[in-house]
Amino acid sequence: MLSIKSNNGYFAGANAGMVCRYNKVSLWLGLWLLSLAAFASTPHSAVHAYYASSSHDPLIQQVLQVSNNPQFGIDELTTAIAQADDAQQQAELLYLLTIGHIQLANIDDAQIALQRAQKLVNQQRSPLLYHRLLLAQTQLLEKQGRPEAGLPLAARVAEWARLHRAEQLYSDALITSGLLEMRLFYYDKSLTWLIQAYEHASRTASQINPALIAEHIATAYQAMDNYESSVMYLQESLEYARQHENRLNQVALLFSLGKAYHEMHLDDQALAALGESAELAASLEDQAAVAKAELLIGQIYLKQGNTDSALLYFTKAREVFGEQGTSYQRFAVNYYIASSWILQNNVANAAQYLQSARTHLTPTLMEKEHIQADLLSAQIAAHDGLHQQAYTLLQHSMASQAALVQKESEQQLEQLKMQFDTSWQDTEIQHHQRIEALQETTFAVRGQRHLLIIVVVALSVLLCLLLYLLGAKAKRYQRKLNALSTLDGATGLLTRVKILEALDIQLHLATQREMKLSVAMLNIDNFTDFAERAGHKTADKLLGLFGKESLETFQETDILGRLANETFLFVFPNAGANEMLTSLNKLRCKVKQLPSAVYMDTLQITLSAGVVQVTAGDTTAQVLEKAGNALHQAKSGGRDRVVTLFVAC
């Protein structure tokens, strides 16, 4: 048993249980509890003394132990509040009660306790507790799904803590701001706050160990696909968890570290980290965490071509996910088992597990998973000799991929617009603040007209400069928006919409001016298999190199675009189909060398292309159909070739 002392006396606690965690973003609750303990029994006149004191305060450890059993703590706090002698004591205990209710996701009860505490606290007499309550309010807003409303409150607390050298509170406010930004998916802003908190905690006597913040920094980096930068912070957090024998956190950190190594193509390190994660999870009887690690281990073995080991791990993961996995996990494990059987040429088993995977797909969600399933179905159909069915599935997956790319592009555009609007609003606020400052200055220096003129002129220059900068910034954003809507981000070629628009224009010009016009449809053979084995990051690099080689091979007057995923459309004004065979075959030869450029010599890709010459009266749809038929002939004829509509080369 332990006792927690307040100004009113003691209330009993119990031995620690498992820490309640809402999710990774809400881990900051534990960080708050590190700092709130001392002021429950510290006079507010000694606030600065507390923040400059040693971190070895036994009260902090006692409150942390009670936080491990929040329901028991809530019962004891309720009794203590009823027995409190004055408003200050009640407010402190209500604050603790608010934290406990938030831990247990009792949002309504937390709101009531917080409002009661805020009514009892005077900002001038108890500034530290007042701002602690503001920070608790930001956490409550996050739980209510309103993180954007908590950001200004967290910034307000951070500014007060900085000015009053309340180091612990300042660290908490920085962490809170970073995690709120993360909930809003502004990972770059989140990193700014979290790294600032990490550096502050490293150089001050804060109760928060920098290793706890490092885990959140790693999470933000991984959300931005910057796995290499996340490794250093994950290793620091893992070392801290090992020192404190926190096996539950070690499981999660080892999995994240294994995932980072996997994305960096460091398979040996990835397998070691994931194996340790699975072993620890097994000792904790956390079968879901074991299966999660085994699924990723299986993917690594599958990428290496070790299908026997991959199937072993996938099968073990499937046994767990079948009972307690999500739809995504159940789809993934069945999909990867089917992929393994395909590599072993066991089409019957592959079809069986792919069918099982499809049962976990939802009609309107999981777009990428639908595309993966269609592509694997096409492989199975092609293996069975059902080439028409395979072609239809490929066309459907290409259309789905194009729709998904368009959707993601629109989301990126919307996010850029939101960031621009936010930046504009911030600038407007700053502008109004400057105007208010000018008005105050005018009243303060009414008798000093010469000085007032100098101030007005200086502010006018600043405003003009600000407007100039705003205009320049708006132009930069507009250029970015135009580039996103015109060029494909991966290859630097035209997007599907723009290449089809260009084809329409060229058809009109060719008819009007009686010019020759030829069109080629190209497809990178075995690209899906390459992406699965080399990783999507490496596949994206290869697409970028393909776009560069294409632009260097053809003339500036030629129009090059990406239709969907690994399929492209090239338009050659004033050129016949036979005239383009040499250039297309030159590009075909270059494509074979691309795996070496991305350090994947063991993998092979080739290029198939179909080129047709437009005849008078052809419509866009007819030209696309002819080019598609020519491409189909190239594929059917063995791939790695350029085919005109009637003549193979």
From TrEMBL:
CDD domains: GGDEF. TPR repeats lie at residues 291-324. InterPro entries: Diguanylate_Cyclase (IPR050469), GGDEF_dom (IPR000160), Nucleotide_cyclase (IPR029787), Rev_trsase/Diguanyl_cyclase (IPR043128), TPR-like_helical_dom_sf (IPR011990), TPR_rpt (IPR019734). PROSITE patterns: GGDEF, TPR. SMART domains: GGDEF, TPR. Pfam families: GGDEF, TPR_8. Residues 515-647 form the GGDEF domain. It is an enzyme of class 2 (transferase). Its EC number is 2.7.7.65. Keywords: Membrane, Signal, TPR repeat, Transmembrane, Transmembrane helix. GO terms for molecular function: diguanylate cyclase activity. Residues 1-40 form the signal peptide. The keyword tRNA-binding does not apply. NCBIfam families: GGDEF. This is diguanylate cyclase. It comes from Salinimonas sediminis.
